[in-house]
Design goal:
cobalt ion transmembrane transporter activity; Methane Monooxygenase Hydroxylase, Chain G, domain 1; magnesium ion binding; membrane; about 325 residues; rod-shaped; 2 domains; Beta Polymerase, domain 2; CorA_TM1_TM2; 7-stranded mixed sheet
Length: about 325
């Protein structure tokens, strides 16, 4: 989808002459463009529209390039509006007169910039100023994503460390029974930690891409930037640095919660083995007594006792109860 924008907002697609763009169309936004749209923009601007494959290159020399008339930039950018976040390439072609953006998913930052341009919120008379607006909104979107991630991790932390406190949401405060299907609850916690960890990795990739783009553009576009551009570039750079630190702390928190969840799983496994150990120990003495009296030797005094059978059953029962009482006193179950 192709959209054109000028200092006043959205622009018409038709220029003053056939095959031309409106002179006030500074920003050309290509959202998942087809071949026809890309060829049209290339013919009308003389600038090459990078393909998705070209924007997906990982080496810095491919992501940050100096062109004859401007700059070609690309970075992976996380999707914010889906439960299962994804990384998709985002590209910029920045010249003195034009800004071409190539993306393959909807981004709130782009919608926010279009609204700001239409409302006259912020300088947007040049391609560099619109580029700066996009950088500011992208950084703000990443900051919002990290804040939401922090809140999610706090909720996960509460679920992990209060795992044994309440049996059910409606349980009484003094009800300390363990929740049902503990294994299922722990698997859900692990899946939640894994999803947050994966999303943090994608946010980190997006931040790294912006962290490389901002100083490169600030150094390379001095010839066609003016006004407060340098100060705004520096502000964006500082914001990205602060988000890097915040993301690092969240990553450490994810690792801490993962260790805590694995510790809970280890405790649950130990509880299972402890129960099995108690059962096996309780069953050994009765088995020994029953085996002894089942040998059927000829001279066994108990065979002639009137109460030999009740005596044997009582001995078996007593030998099973003694270990149970012992382990109960020790608090093993």
């Amino acid at each position: 989808m192709l959209s054109l924008h000028g200092p006043e907002g959205a622009a018409d697609h038709a220029g003053p002459s056939p095959g031309s763009l409106p002179p006030y169309a500074i920003w050309i936004d290509l959202n998942d463009p087809n071949a026809e749209e890309a060829e049209r923009i290339e013919a009308q601007t003389g600038l090459r529209v990078p393909s998705r494959q070209a924007l997906s290159e990982v080496e810095s020399s491919s992501r940050l390039r100096r062109l004859k008339t401007g700059l070609s930039l690309s970075t992976p950018m996380i999707t914010f509006d889906q439960a299962d976040s994804q990384l998709k390439p985002l590209g910029f072609v920045l010249t003195k007169d034009r800004l071409i953006t190539v993306r393959f998913h909807d981004l709130r930052a782009f919608a926010a910039v279009k609204t700001r341009i239409a409302e006259g919120d912020g300088p947007c008379a040049t391609s560099t100023e619109i580029f700066l607006l996009l950088m500011e909104e992208l950084v703000d979107s990443l900051a919002d994503a990290l804040e939401d991630m922090g809140a999610d991790l706090d909720a996960l932390s509460t679920r992990i460390f209060d795992f044994d406190v309440r049996a059910r949401p409606s349980a009484r405060p003094d009800d300390k029974r363990p929740p049902r299907r503990r294994d299922l609850a722990l698997r859900r916690i692990l899946r939640g930690i894994g999803r947050r960890g994966k999303a943090l990795g994608k946010i980190r990739s997006s931040l790294l891409g912006l962290e490389r783009i901002v100083p490169f553009v600030a150094a390379e576009c001095e010839s066609f930037s003016e006004g407060e551009a340098d100060q705004r570039f520096e502000t964006i750079r500082r914001d990205i640095a602060s988000l890097d630190e915040f993301e690092t702390r969240l990553s450490e928190n994810v690792q801490f919660l993962l260790d805590a969840a694995l510790g809970l799983i280890s405790i649950e496994q130990n509880n299972v083995f402890r129960v099995l150990t108690v059962v096996s120990v309780v069953g050994v003495p009765p088995t020994l007594i029953a085996s002894m009296y089942g040998m059927n030797f000829k001279h066994m005094p108990e065979l002639d006792w009137i109460y030999g059978y009740p005596y044997g059953l009582s001995l078996i029962t007593l030998s099973a109860l003694v270990p149970i009482v012992f382990f109960k006193i020790k608090g093993w179950f």
